[in-house]
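[agent] plan:
  1. take the single chain provided in the ticket
  2. run structure prediction with default settings
  3. attach structure tokens to the ticket
  4. add a short note for the reviewer (M.T.)
[agent] executing step 1
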Amino acid sequence: MKKIYLNNKFLIFVSVLLFCFCANAELFKVHEFSLNNGLQVVVVENHKAPIIKQMLWYNVGAIDDGLGKGGRAHFLEHLMFRGTDKLKDGEFNNLMEKNGVSHNAFTSYEFTAYHEFSDISKLELLMAVEADRMKGLNFDEAAFETEKKVVIQERKQVVENNPAAPFYERLRHMIWGNQPFGRPVTGLIEEIEELSYQDVRDFYERYYAPNNTVLVLAGDIDAETAKILAEKYFGAIKAVKIKRNPMPVLKEKFSQRLEMTLPNIQTAKIVEEYILPTYAELGGNHQNYDALAEYLGGGQTSALYRNLVLERRIAVSVSASFDPINRTNTSFSLSLIPADGVSASKAEQALHESLEKAISELDEQKVASLKKKLVADLVYINDNPSDSAYLVGTLIVSGLSLEYLKNYEADVKKISLKGVKDAYREVFFNSAKATGILLPQSEDEK
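[agent] step 2 finished; step 3 output follows
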């Protein structure tokens, strides 16, 4: 089964969707309720087609693995597709295939999600199997050892065979050090090899519970029906006492630099990560940061793309993104790939020159256009239950409420020229910074 990891591309995608969806949140029929056992349920009604997207978001991820136990959350994600008290090993995937259900899962630092997409007639089946997996997972030592080999092989194929992976893992460790966010979601191979059956079983018993889970249903369903079905399939599952370590937060200001030369890298890449305060601490109008990212590097019409790619031919790609949906620090990112014949140092200098030029040219008319562009993308979310389910689930498990969505249109209207320029100064002059330069190996080094 193909696994999906929450990486920078996904976070950029979600950040874009966040702005689009929230801008007119009242146009969406979104409902929220909780069962007596603590299961939080969010329903996003969309009756344009008889389809449903179900997602179970467990409020646990790689940051909960524990020192020396790297990879536990991801390993458990794999094992969730093995047997349960009601389904023999292998029957889950067969059942989904037989019923035409598209399904998958992913693990991130902060949460683990399981999702299915099907026609609405299969919803009760989907709820039944997820409720079964929540507390009925039944894997033995043999299945555990078999899956361990799969997880190790996946780490080798997806991460260690990616020539750029050491760069991104080193860059993340440079920012976060030995804190959980500084370690890979998959764990290191030596950590995975040392994991025991009991390590993973304890993790499952400790964190997989209704009061640590958000169920998102998006599609052809109403809140009343959803409540009846959620109670029927999940209501009898008992809550457990959840104890989690405090969320690590970076407070200090720093400026660090990483340059790596690696084999099999074809082109250089420049990455700049600016570490900002938490969402609650950031202050001001947060949508100004979304607008700044859109203006600087939100596509082929953005200021940096026009200047560096189309006009000066310094780069072949450049992008910017703001990631607000974390329970810890927010972040602003820049990424650039130099054009052929352009050195990384020249491209980096040109990037900073282009930033100054872009902010000096920002005016009221451009801010107004930014707001219109961001709002116009709403239709893409409104028509797609899968996108809505991803977005709402991510927001809720990140600690944001539906009030955040409902207030977003008003917040978008508050975006101002001064606000965007203030956000620029906060990002580029008042935040921690990590610069990563990835370089191809020269012929002499090969």
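[agent] step 4 note for reviewer: Residues 59 and 397 are 6 Å apart (CA to CA).
[agent] ticket updated
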